[in-house]
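Summary of Year 1 activities. Much of the first year was spent building the evaluation harness for sequence design. The harness presents a backbone, in tokenized form, and records the residue chosen at every position. We chose the following record to illustrate the format because it has been used consistently in internal testing since the harness was completed.
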């Protein structure tokens, strides 16, 4: 069987290179340019006819989403046997339902957009990583096959590396309790949970911690770190309950603005780690404040090969 053709949007060229290396292959080639009026030119230079083709890219911006859409369409229109979209970061995953009348459910509209990509000869698949809401795959329509991929084995590896032989697995809120409990069970370690109340659309406060500590290490997991407020509030609560060393781990390190700086300068965290699912994490990977691990191998078991 031949290796798949691996393409990516420009922001995720690093991901395509990592995945290609793991697949004993090389990234395919895409020509890109921008006209003076802002319109973009895109051309697939690699031969994709009757090939299994992977197109990788996170919806980190509207421009990135459209590039992913355009690139996938070009691949299908040039005869791909199969199309596999790898979306390490699916944006708007917290906007999975309307909070008030008239509000656009952007997670659903983005899923519909990707669902409208024409079908390759043997079908389309979209691989989505550690979604904030389990219901998002159901927003995809038609013939495209959505798969919710878990980064759990990689998260366990990072937790063991940074937490040591014995630690407590902590959550940032009750909403992630089930996932954290499962992670702790697989690691054979205890779990602790915090409960929080929302003070405003952008502010929360911890109201309770499920256990007291005597200097134990706590590895706090959350699916994503954006502003870092939830992680900071949880860390403060665990520290006040007697925790010793604290480690923060997330699948998706979004880190807008000064979020990483706020976390590192809080003095609460011995280590902060995430995968490279979001381009911001990759950009910050050279910082001594952040450990970033490639998530490419999490997708390999789901890649289709027909030849």
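For this record, the design step produced the sequence shown next.
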């Amino acid at each position: 069987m031949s290796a798949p053709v691996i393409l990516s949007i420009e922001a995720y060229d690093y991901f395509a290179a990592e995945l290609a290396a793991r697949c004993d292959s090389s990234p395919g080639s895409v020509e890109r340019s921008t006209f003076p009026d802002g319109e973009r030119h895109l051309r697939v230079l690699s031969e994709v006819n009757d090939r299994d083709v992977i197109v990788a890219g996170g919806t980190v911006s509207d421009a990135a989403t459209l590039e992913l859409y355009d690139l996938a369409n070009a691949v299908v229109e040039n005869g791909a046997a199969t199309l596999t979209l790898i979306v390490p970061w699916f944006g708007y995953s917290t906007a999975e339902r309307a909070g008030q009348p008239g509000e656009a459910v952007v997670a659903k509209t983005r899923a519909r957009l990707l669902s409208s990509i024409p079908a390759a000869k043997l079908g389309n698949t979209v691989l989505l990583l550690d979604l904030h809401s389990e219901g998002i795959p159901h927003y995809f329509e038609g013939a495209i096959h959505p798969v919710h991929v878990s980064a759990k084995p990689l998260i366990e590896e990072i937790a063991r590396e940074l937490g040591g032989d014995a630690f407590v697995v902590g959550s940032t809120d009750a909403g992630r309790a089930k996932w954290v409990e499962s992670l702790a069970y697989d690691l054979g370690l205890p779990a602790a949970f915090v409960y929080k109340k929302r003070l405003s659309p952008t502010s929360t406060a911890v109201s309770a911690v499920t256990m007291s500590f005597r200097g134990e290490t706590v590895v706090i997991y959350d699916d994503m770190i954006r502003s870092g407020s939830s992680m900071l509030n949880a860390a403060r609560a665990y520290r006040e309950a007697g925790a010793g060393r604290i480690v923060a781990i997330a699948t998706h390190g979004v880190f807008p603005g000064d979020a990483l700086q706020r976390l590192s300068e809080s003095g609460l965290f011995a280590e902060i780690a995430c995968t490279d699912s979001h381009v911001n994490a990759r950009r910050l990977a050279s910082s001594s404040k952040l450990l970033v691990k490639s998530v490419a191998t999490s997708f390999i078991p789901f890649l289709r090969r027909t030849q």
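The chain has two domains: 5-150+296-302, 152-276. Quantitative recovery figures across the full test set are reported in Table 2.
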